[in-house]
Amino acid sequence: MACDSSRFDVILEKKIPLVLSVGALDMVNFGPKTIIPPEFQQRKIHEHNEQVSLMRTTVGENKKFAAFIAEKLNKASSRVCVCLPEKGVSALDAPGKAFYDPEATSCLTHELQMLLENSERCQVKVFPYHINDLEFANALVDSFLEISPKSRHVECQPDESKSVQDIQNDNAALQKYSSSNRENFSRLNDFPNAKPETLQKRIVILQKLKDQISKGKPIIGAGAGTGISAKFEEAGGVDLIVLYNSGRFRMAGRGSLAGLLPFADANAIVLEMANEVLPVVKEVAVLAGVCATDPFRRMDNFLKQLESVGFCGVQNFPTVGLFDGNFRQNLEETGMGFSLEVEMIATAHRMGLLTTPYAFCPDEAVAMAEAGADIIVAHMGLTTSGSIGAKTAVSLEESVACVQAIADATHRINPDAIVLCHGGPVSGPEEAAYVLKRTRGVHGFYGASSMERLPVEQAITATVQQYKSISIE
């Protein structure tokens, strides 16, 4: 935490208006007390914790601080204001605290007043406050407003003031909505990085789904690989639509596992698909499948990009959950494991996005529930039916037990979470009904191949066969 000789240089060189104070100049930071150099062991030491020790600065050291600061600021050509608190420069520099030393603090203040060339360009102000007082914070802001260009803080364009008002109105509406939400699944403190409009969408979506469950109706989610798939999934009454790269491969006649191989940038494909799908879906929530293990994206920035494009939530796909054996173990060992997907869901949750991750076992369900997932999708593996479906999967009976175990694990963490079943032998309405009737706390089905690839295969095949059956005699 050392300060070197270049301190303040860039601000002064760039001629940025600067308000400067003297916070924490009463202390020098060290690591554990045992590593403080011998020549300082007899000084006044405060152990902040086991890893951090603080040493009180002396009158002589404070004189040197003042000289260092004054030398820099006296050379500045931009506007500077130095604000000095008389009653202490840190929480420890106060009456009854470990570093309270009025002589050292007043020396710092007096030296700066003496050494700085007080002028219109460089002002020095002394306030009868402690550095942590609200009054001193207000004085700092007022001082900056005095020296900064007026256009930056006085002139406010009508659209800017309107946007502020809109945000205030959104917050008020959101607070009202949340306080009346009987399920209470949207406490505002849980979403520190959320935009009001994003969080409000999440609240409305979840309330609608909860109401549907209370009426005994299943939640149905669907993957979409094309605009026409999404358009007619909405027409059929689907509750959620998810876009991910496998949809693109699947509807191109390739197996869904192509989405897990290095054929294209999974996250880039989702952004491309947004242009095709989002304009044709009018009401249904559209979520993005996110490759959370992508090492070439800052995930927090990418989630903001998805939010700005128009997605209201996310799912973890491509997912390392579909890998097993030594390869999966190697992914975990080399920092490309499932924990990155959990972390992505947690980040999205804090942003107020709807989160509907896949989980392949109870432990993964627990991790996702603890990360704040709204909907857990119990994944039974690659869908087995159709021309390019997998042949190896658990049986339908085994799926019932697996889905139930994931649902139970989820609800131990969050009793209000929604659980859907997906994949493996659960490849159509009859199989979904079989699982839902034999499980507790499972609220619906999420289909991808079964929702767009299989219907297309069957419909096109049947239609062509009908044409071929026409007689021309």
UniProtKB/TrEMBL annotation:
PANTHER family: UPF0261 DOMAIN PROTEIN (AFU_ORTHOLOGUE AFUA_1G10120)
InterPro entries named among the record's database cross-references: Aldolase_TIM, Pyrv/PenolPyrv_kinase-like_dom, TIM-br_IGPS-like, Tobamovirus_resist_UPF0261, UPF0261_C
Positions of the TIM-barrel domain: 205-470
Identification of the protein by name: ToMV susceptible protein tm-1(GCR26)
Source organism (scientific name): Datura stramonium
Superkingdom, taxonomy of origin: Eukaryota
Domain annotation UPF0261: ranges: 1-147
SUPFAM superfamilies assigned: Phosphoenolpyruvate/pyruvate domain
